[in-house]
Specification:
single chain; 9 strands; two-stranded antiparallel ribbon; five-stranded antiparallel sheet; mainly beta
Length: about 110
């Protein structure tokens, strides 16, 4: 028997906190469990630095600062392929610092 096909975006959860001065107040949590069975997560945008969007059934696109990420999701909800590229021009003020153990993009 084949395993049940997982639909990309069908399981999701968000959590936000109310800020009161320098501390946090109540938290607000939501998930796919509070909606109809066929509800899917589609898009998340936070300020200008993060944009995640479902482009097709199993294709997700994300802009994370100066990076552009494409993810293909498999039948069980796992990432099958991940492609990372740069989505900026040098005049936007981003430089790549390769002196660390990881790639670090810095705003100049």
């Amino acid at each position: 028997m084949l395993p049940k096909r997982h639909k990309a975006g069908s399981h999701w959860r968000i959590l936000v906190h109310e800020r009161i001065g320098k501390s946090y107040g109540k938290q607000i949590e939501d998930s796919h469990e509070n909606y109809k069975e066929h509800t899917e997560f589609d898009e998340l945008v936070i300020d200008e630095w993060l944009h995640l969007e479902q482009m097709d059934t199993n294709h997700w696109w994300m802009r994370l600062g100066p990076l552009m990420v494409h993810v293909t999701v498999g039948e069980r909800g796992e990432a099958r392929t991940i492609q990372v590229g740069e989505d900026f021009s040098p005049d936007e003020g981003w430089i790549l610092d390769e002196t660390q153990d990881a790639y670090i993009w810095k705003k100049t």
